[in-house]
UniProtKB/TrEMBL annotation:
Reaction catalyzed: sn-glycerol 3-phosphate + NADP(+) = dihydroxyacetone phosphate + NADPH + H(+); sn-glycerol 3-phosphate + NAD(+) = dihydroxyacetone phosphate + NADH + H(+)
Record domain Glycerol-3-phosphate dehydrogenase NAD-dependent C-terminal: where: 181-321
Compartment(s) where it occurs, according to its Swiss-Prot or TrEMBL record: Cytoplasm
Record: residues binding sn-glycerol 3-phosphate: 106, 137, 139, 192, 245, 255-257
Function: Catalyzes the reduction of the glycolytic intermediate dihydroxyacetone phosphate (DHAP) to sn-glycerol 3-phosphate (G3P), the key precursor for phospholipid synthesis.
Protein name from the UniProt record: Glycerol-3-phosphate dehydrogenase [NAD(P)+]
Length: 340
């Protein structure tokens, strides 16, 4: 049994705490909301995020960050990308020993264009961190807490740390693989949300399965193109954290990114959609970051560019689709190693 702290009691933080507590670990869940602490500790539910689910009784919650950080030597960060730098800064000031940092978030910081592991490394000094591991893959919280079979990947530059995370989380409904390609895993995780927004828009407009399949496969092509330019292993993109997560996010009714896109495709404004969701839609900010990354690395990302125009330049979705379909004719398959 290990002592583990999870930072963030939204859908995913609660679901992974559920797995850790069921695995017999002494798991403490941190939330900034006192009323959530009371609900989790006394009623064993978190109904705003996972309605109707009974949480394990050995799972405890706190709202005191120092108490949470002091509890464990493994700290799992499970909050939206935009809040990660600030929370890591705060944790970095509290932590007084070397901890293993795991993150489960899926995004890229706009402007700095940092991956999440890079943000953690910037904010937590090397004397306070043993390693950073990203845990990522096709895994909707709503299905994990029903104990439906789920596969996921622990990625790190430190193989031993990845295997440690694999051991902590694995059980008979949550199967964890390892991967040493942290860049590929984090890029796939972040950018699948951009394509899922586009898939939701396509469905919202009323386009069919052909369009969805096109978005998934051509989306994967442009994610891989960028990832390889950033140093990722091309094979990572056909794995769980690439194609796997792209499929689940573009096709599942659980996906907040797909849902947001769907509402946009039906004519709602971005402001209406974001304020109505009540949960994070990572793909919106990541579209901005991906647009900046494509420019920086000189990589062609037509779907990302089309979504950027829809979200931030008021281009009507159908007009963006027309423009995509009428681009210069292309050869489908590219050679990542020759096309520099
Ligand atoms: N929901 C899911 O099934 C999955 C989500 N993820 C990723 O996990 C991350 C978190 O997502 P969810 O838990 O789904 O989001 P959520 O919207 O359900 O919950 C976010 C949680 O973070 C807290 N939070 C927000 N801003 C904060 C701040 N500044 N300081 C402290 N706490 C703050 C909120 O109070 C809430 O408890 C995202 O990057 C998402 O892409 C990854 C895999 C699955
Ligand atoms: O990453 C996820 C599933 O793997 C969750 O996706 P959404 O944030 O779109 O719900």
């Amino acid at each position: 049994m290990e002592k583990i702290t999870v930072i963030g009691a939204g859908s995913w933080g609660t679901a992974i705490s559920f797995v850790l507590a069921e695995n017999g670990h002494d798991c403490l869940l941190w939330t900034r909301r006192d009323e959530q602490v009371v609900e989790i500790n006394e009623k064993h539910t978190n109904n705003s995020y996972l309605p109707g689910i009974r949480l394990p009784e050995n799972l405890k919650a706190v709202s005191d960050l120092k108490q949470a950080v002091d509890h464990a030597e493994t700290i799992v960060i499970a909050i939206p990308t935009k809040a990660i730098r600030d929370i890591c800064k705060a944790i970095g000031e509290i932590v007084n020993r070397k901890c293993l940092f795991v993150h489960v978030s899926k995004g890229i910081e706009p402007d700095s264009l940092k991956r999440i592991s890079e943000v953690i490394e910037e904010e937590i000094s090397p004397d306070k961190r043993q390693a950073v591991v990203a845990l990522s893959g096709p895994s909707h919280a709503e299905e994990v807490v029903l104990r439906h079979p789920t596969t996921i990947t622990a990625a790190s530059n430190d193989q031993q740390a990845a295997e440690c995370v694999q051991d902590l989380f694995s059980n008979n409904y949550f199967r964890v693989y390892t991967n040493s390609d942290l860049t590929g895993v984090e890029i796939g995780a972040a950018l699948k949300n951009v394509i899922a927004l586009a898939a939701g828009i396509s469905d919202g407009i009323g386009y069919g399965d052909n369009a969805k399949a096109a978005l998934i496969t051509r989306g994967l092509a442009e994610i891989s193109r960028l990832g390889v330019k950033m140093g990722a292993n091309p094979l990572t993109f056909s794995g769980l954290t690439g194609l796997g997560d792209l499929i689940v996010t573009c096709t599942s009714l659980h996906s907040r990114n797909w849902k947001a896109g769907n509402l946009l495709g039906k004519g709602n404004s971005l402001e209406e959609v974001v304020s109505g969701m009540g949960m994070v839609i990572e793909g919106v900010r990541t579209t901005k970051a991906a647009h900046q990354l494509a420019k920086l690395h000189g990589v062609s990302m037509p779907l990302t560019e089309a979504l950027y125009a829809v979200l931030f330049k008021d281009v009507p979705p159908k007009e963006a689709v027309d423009k995509l379909m009428n681009r210069t004719k292309k050869h489908e398959i590219e050679d990542f190693f020759l096309n520099d």
